[in-house]
Amino acid sequence: MNMRQQPAVVRPRARGTERSSARRAELIGIGRKLFADTSYDALSMDDIARQAHVAKGLIYYYFQSKRGYYLAIIHDSVADLVTFAASGRELAAVDRVHRTIDSYLRYAEHNQAAFRTIVSGGVGFDAEVHAIRDGVREAIVGTIAEGAYGRSDIAPLARMGLLAWVCSVEGATLDWMDHLELSRDTMRELLVKTLGGALRAIEELDPSYPAPQPARRED
Q: How far apart are the C-alpha atoms of 98 and 107, rounded to whole Å?
């Protein structure tokens, strides 16, 4: 007796995955609003579930823990900043630098709690938050290097000079958020000017990395 081959069972796995991804993205979007100006310790899981209008178990299902949820939110919000910094290659170098610094300040201004977490290193000593912070730093260093030198693979001295500037920007931005004595436009122009100083210092120590024309002082 010949057995007819049974058709394979097709499970709606892809559709379920899409729904799951959409639900996860929705929860992250909610979390970005909740944690924009509220610290990690200030919200309990009960608070989050109540304000998000979801069951607490749903958050645990997708993120395993409060920390996992918070890290996912930071990853998502920082990804926007890093992607934006890496884009705009069609712009003139000075315009791209202005845009990158402006977007950095806007992110800090509208995501103050997350920004403080990233810059300070997270919840306690958090290696994952440190990795996120380092990724943002490298993205900005790469953007500045491409604008100034036409490439991101630069020598250690040039990289350190740009990294030192980025680290100073972090500290200055924290102080700016605390006092708000300067407008964002003024703060942006100040940071652009200090970048010019860093680029000139790099050239002085390594002439193979000349500062671009906009960073030069007029005689």
A: 14
Q: Is the dihedral of CA 176, 178, 181, 185 positive or negative?
A: positive
- Dist CA 169 CA 172 (whole Å): 5
Per-residue pLDDT of the chain in tens (219 residues, 90 and over written 9): 444 444 444 444 444 577 888 888 899 988 888 887 777 888 889 988 998 888 999 999 999 998 889 888 888 878 877 777 667 777 777 788 888 898 889 888 888 887 887 787 655 557 888 888 888 889 889 889 988 898 999 999 999 999 999 999 999 999 999 988 999 999 999 999 999 999 999 999 999 999 988 766 554
Q: What is the DSSP letter of 127?
A: H
Q: Which amino acid is at 58?
A: L
Q: How far is CA 89 from the centre of its chain?
A: 18
pTM: 0.77
Long-range contacts of 125-134 (CB under 8 A, 24+ apart): 128/71, 129/71, 129/74, 132/71, 132/74, 132/75, 132/78
Q: What is the DSSP letter of 91?
A: S
